[in-house]
Each structure stands twice: as structure tokens, then as C-alpha cells.
Design a protein that fits this description.
The complex is a heterodimer. By secondary structure, chain A is an all-alpha fold. Chain A contains four helices and no strands. Helices cover 73% and strands 0% of the residues of chain A. The chains are: A mainly alpha, B mainly alpha.
């Protein structure tokens, strides 16, 4: 399989998964339990993504580096109600600076 | 949620939120383009992924795995698809809100990603949610594709995107998205369980799998919430304020 074929199959899958959510019957979500779980999904997914992106490196190996400090700074900024873009820039700057001075 | 007409101020806030998400995410697209080329894709393939797949996590998973060679193609497809499952879940949540049909439904599906969903569901009015969804999705789409091209072209020139802290920018973005959702004890519990499960699984499972398994933590919400019901419409949330400390996002999930 060429890289293009793989790319197009993966792309079709990605779009199909997005579309299928719009095609299933709406009343599937009317049930309160299902509704609560669906609403909680982003919390679980985002928390997992934060953890994976911050604490793991190549191959999923546990890693502690400048990203941890970046998230710490981001949390402080969030507590201070900084806008999203500021939080992101501070996170990047923290990691870039720590790496520049060779601390992480 | 109500369907009242939006005030100019509400409109302005949604627009600002959507555009700031687009810019934040777009900036990260540079690293996707650069990393895709580093993984062995050519510029066209990098751009095709951003244009056609258009979901950061899946894109990063795909290039990360296929960089091992074509024999890894099936795993790359599986991982990117697993990561894409969440977009289908987002669509489930959005379908009643957007009420789209025909070609607009296809367009809505294509831009159903973390960012557009996060902005949409964090609004307290249906109109604001719809505006937020489309504006965020389209601005992320425009900037993500543009910066993917730029990143692919200058990939070698900027060297390691880590030098610029771009990987940490993604961490910060996910954190900022998650933050406003930690409204009660249940959501904090779900977040902690999901994070621990994901990190524990990471070394032993293929990229993408820890995130999907961790999503099962959402089932903690299956039972009745303990204390205050109606946590979803916490009045705290509609506080006026300069920029709502709301979501937005960064998308990529290099995993």
C-alpha cells in the first residue's frame, strides 16, 4: 500500500466517524444517563490528552521535561483568568526558555 | 440554552473566542507541517492530511506511526481512526444544536473537531453556540491548512518545533480547554481517572489507544450526580468578563 492509499483510507475513516455522529437518531441521547456520559466525554478526553501530551514522549514512555513546567505556568495563568491565547503563548515560552537555558 | 437573539456584546465575545482559537491552533499547524515532512511525507501529503483528514490528533498519530515505514500503514490507519472516534461523539452532541441538513451537514461534519465543539458547547445560547461552531471550525480550517503548508515548506529551516515550545503550547491549550469544564467534584474525578488511565497505558499500547480507553472514565457520570444537580448550567459560567476563560483549543494530539 502506498502512502497515498493509506492516507486516503485514514482520511475516509476520519470523515466517516465525524459524519456518523450526525446520522444516528437524536433520541439516542434523550436518556439522562447517556446525556450525562456524553457531556462528560470531553472532560475525560481532554484530561487524557493533557496527560499524554505532557507526560509521555516517543513510544508513550513516561517523560518529565519542560512541558510539565509549561502546564504549571498555564494553570497559574488560568487561575488568573488569562485569555486562552495568552495561556498558550505562556506555555510555549516557558518550555522554549527552559530548553534555551538547558534546564529541561 | 435559549434561542434569543444575541446582543452585540455576546456576538463580539463569541467571535473573539472563535478567532483566538483559530489563531492558537493555526500556530500549531506549523509544527504539524514540519513534523509531517520529517516523518517522510512530501509537502502535498502533509497538506492533504490537513485538508482532508482535518483532525489534529489523528493527523499526528498517522504521521508518527507511518514514519516507521509503509509496513506500519495499517497501524497508522487504526490509530488515527481510533482518535477520530471522539469527533463522532462530538457530532452526537452537536447534531441537535446545529440542526443541519444536506451539504451543510457534510460541511459541519468536516469541521467537527475539538476546537469547534469546545467553543460551541461552552456557549450559553444556541445562537452563540452555532456561530461559535462555524466560525471556530472555519477559522481553524483556514489557518491550520495555511500553517501546515508553511510548516512543511520551512520544516527543516525551523528545525525542531520543540525548540519553540510548540509541543508545550499544545499541552497548555488542552489544559486551557479542560479548565472551565472542571466545575464540580464529578468532573474533577473523571479528569483525574482519565489522566491516570491514559498515562499508565501509554507505554504499553499503540498511540491513540490510551486516550480512547481513558474516555471510558466518562461513564463515572452515568449515575445521578451527588450534590447540586444541573451542574451543566452553573450560573458561574455566564459571568460576564473580559474574555471568558473558556475553551478553545489546540488540537493536536501527537500522542
Amino acid at each position: 500500500m502506498s502512502i497515498w492509499v493509506a492516507l486516503l483510507i485514514a482520511t475516509a475513516m476520519a470523515f466517516g466517524l465525524k459524519l456518523v455522529g450526525y446520522l444516528v437518531p437524536a433520541d439516542l441521547l434523550a436518556e439522562p444517563h447517556v446525556k450525562r456520559v456524553t457531556a462528560a466525554l470531553p472532560v475525560a478526553l481532554l484530561a487524557a490528552l493533557v496527560a499524554i501530551q505532557t507526560l509521555t514522549g516517543s513510544g508513550g514512555a513516561w517523560t518529565l521535561d519542560a512541558r510539565v513546567a509549561a502546564v504549571g505556568v498555564a494553570i497559574v495563568a488560568l487561575i488568573l483568568r488569562a485569555p486562552f491565547i495568552v495561556v498558550v503563548v505562556l506555555g510555549a515560552a516557558t518550555a522554549a526558555l527552559l530548553r534555551l537555558v538547558g534546564w529541561a | 440554552m435559549t434561542t434569543d437573539v444575541l446582543t452585540a456584546e455576546q456576538r463580539r465575545l463569541v467571535i473573539r473566542e472563535a478567532l483566538s482559537v483559530g489563531i492558537a491552533t493555526g500556530a500549531y499547524g506549523i509544527s504539524f507541517g514540519a513534523l509531517a515532512v520529517a516523518a517522510g511525507l512530501d509537502v502535498w501529503q502533509a497538506c492533504a492530511l490537513s485538508l482532508l483528514m482535518f483532525t489534529g490528533g489523528s493527523q499526528f498519530a498517522f504521521i508518527g506511526i507511518i514514519s516507521a515505514g509503509l509496513h506500519a500503514a495499517p497501524a497508522a490507519i487504526a490509530a488515527s481512526s481510533l482518535l477520530g472516534v471522539r469527533n463522532g461523539l462530538y457530532a452526537l452532541e452537536l447534531t441537535q444544536l446545529l440542526r443541519v441538513r444536506g451539504i451543510r451537514r457534510l460541511a459541519a461534519a468536516h469541521i467537527t473537531i475539538d476546537e469547534s465543539t469546545a467553543v460551541a458547547v461552552s456557549q450559553s445560547h444556541n445562537k452563540a453556540a452555532r456561530l461559535g461552531f462555524w466560525l471556530t471550525g472555519l477559522s481553524v480550517f483556514a489557518l491550520w491548512n495555511l500553517t501546515t503548508l508553511v510548516g512543511a515548506l520551512v520544516g527543516n529551516a525551523i528545525g525542531d518545533p520543540r525548540t519553540w515550545g510548540l509541543d508545550a503550547a499544545a499541552c497548555a491549550a488542552f489544559t486551557a480547554l479542560l479548565w472551565p469544564r472542571l466545575k464540580n467534584r464529578d468532573s474533577v474525578a473523571i479528569a483525574v481517572v482519565a489522566a491516570v488511565v491514559a498515562v499508565v497505558l501509554a507505554p504499553a499500547t499503540p498511540p491513540g489507544v490510551p486516550v480512547i480507553v481513558a474516555a471510558l472514565a466518562a461513564f463515572i457520570a452515568w449515575r445521578e450526580p451527588r450534590a447540586t444537580t444541573g451542574a451543566e448550567d452553573d450560573p458561574e459560567d455566564s459571568r460576564p468578563g473580559p474574555v471568558p476563560a473558556q475553551p478553545e483549543r489546540g488540537s493536536e494530539v501527537p500522542s
